[in-house]
Design a protein that fits this description.
By secondary structure, the chain is of the alpha/beta class. The protein is built from eleven helices and eight strands. The strands form two sheets. Strands 1-2-3-4-6-8 form a six-stranded mixed β-sheet, with helices on both faces. It has a two-stranded parallel sheet with strand order 5-7.
Length: 261
């Protein structure tokens, strides 16, 4: 049984973490499988959107604490293993952000610590009502410093800091209010609602979405003037695309575009 399952529906790839007995913890094996799949998807121009979900009763409970504790047996107390673990986890999170295709998280049950980081790292998220989100490491003496990177880029500062220092869960209503997720739907509708969003995105011109996703994250880190300078250049690049020309021409001629991508 694969620890990470993939199946495709048209131009939408479905990745499902499949370690329900460990609440889909980000073990060494899970991180390796995620990284391999993301690297493969990066080169797959037939896929235009990705949905990330988890099997069983939870989306993801964060890092595998049993594996982490076992690493303490090394001569250095686990320092090298811990550094390697957090580097590999950060690479997975960065790979989601840099993936050409939009990635939609589909959390249910709980998304805690690095599991919450995984939701925050995705471009969008549709959650099952009743899902709980938290960066709870502080409760066991481990501040969620790496999950904080993605969380604080989704959630306002004071609310992020409260979550990090109290270790308290937030529900889907609060997660939606803070911007951690796009929407919450009844669990019975979760698969269909997420798929509808993915198919809407996948129906757009792939090259335009790829250009736009990269530009979205690049400009958000810039000052106002630099952001406009950068995105102006991006718009020129986009306008010179043959398929963009076709899309605008088709709109003016009141017909469907014949895109190559």
């Amino acid at each position: 049984m694969a620890i990470l399952e993939r199946h495709d529906t048209g131009a939408v790839a479905h990745l499902r973490m499949n370690a329900p007995d460990r609440l889909n913890a980000l073990s060494d094996a899970m991180l390796a499988a995620l990284q391999e799949s993301l690297d493969t998807l990066r080169e797959d121009r037939g896929i235009r959107a990705v949905i990330l979900s988890g099997a069983g009763k939870a989306f993801c409970a964060g890092h595998d604490l049993k594996e982490m504790q076992a690493a303490r047996q090394a001569e250095d107390g686990g320092a090298a293993a811990f550094a390697d673990l957090f580097d590999r986890c950060a690479n997975v999170m960065r790979s989601i952000r840099s993936l050409p295709q939009p990635v939609i998280a589909r959390p249910h049950g709980i998304a805690t610590a690095a599991g919450c980081q995984l939701v925050a790292s995705c471009d969008m998220a549709v959650a099952a009502e009743g899902t709980r989100f938290g960066v709870n490491g502080v409760n066991i003496g481990l501040f969620c410093s790496t999950p904080m990177v993605a969380l604080s880029r989704n959630v306002p500062r004071k609310q992020a800091f409260e979550m990090l220092t109290t270790g308290a869960f937030i529900d889907t209503a609060r997660a939606c209010e803070l911007g951690l997720i796009n929407r919450a739907v009844p669990e019975a509708d979760l698969e269909a609602e997420t798929m509808q969003l993915a198919e809407t995105v996948a129906a757009k011109l792939g090259s335009a979405v790829r250009i736009g996703k990269e530009a979205f994250y690049a400009q958000i880190e810039l000052g106002l003037d630099a952001a406009y300078d950068y995105t102006g250049r991006v718009m020129v690049e986009n306008m010179l695309d043959r398929d963009t020309d076709e899309g605008i021409t088709a709109f003016l001629e009141k017909r469907s575009p014949e895109w190559r991508q």
